[in-house]
Amino acid sequence: MNLLRAARLARDTVPTQEVRAAVDQEIENFEQAVPALKPVRDMAEHFDDYAIGAGDPQRIDGATKPRFTLYDVWYTRDPETDQAGVRIGTYELDTSATAAAVAMAERVLDQLLPDGEPSATPRQIEQILRGLTTDGEAV
Known about the structure:
- By secondary structure, this protein is α+β, with helices and mostly antiparallel strands.
- The protein has one domain.
- It has helices spanning 2-13, 17-33, 37-45, 47-51, 96-112, 122-129, and strands at residues 59-60, 63-64, 73-77, 84-88, 91-94.
- Strands 3-4-5 form a three-stranded antiparallel β-sheet. Strands 1-2 form a two-stranded antiparallel ribbon.
- Strand 1 (59-60) and strand 2 form a beta hairpin.
- Helix 1 runs antiparallel to helix 2 (17-33) and helix 2 (17-33) packs antiparallel against helix 5 (96-112).
- It is globular, with a radius of gyration of 18 Å.
């Protein structure tokens, strides 16, 4: 989710509408590629709300349904591909979410870096997404 926040920050602060639109499209592509990200994050982060029936999906017409809900958390590994994952309730994330996140970060950075610059390294991605330039100076 921090990656999405950083991408949205980049979108909201770039100087041209063209770059904003391109970054916005990358965000949309990522969210479509990993639809379980937000529900899994919400269920893990707000487990206490879900336990007492106050999680967002448990609300009916804006009211909280007073019931105890326990969502099992499962860690998975596909024996054929060795792909790891996590499942909470009916939602599952696997390592393809990581690949989608890295791809989005790279494409967003491609929009932010001047033409002719080489592809960003993982360290540069990390620094830029933390709100720093590649040389460590605060933006």
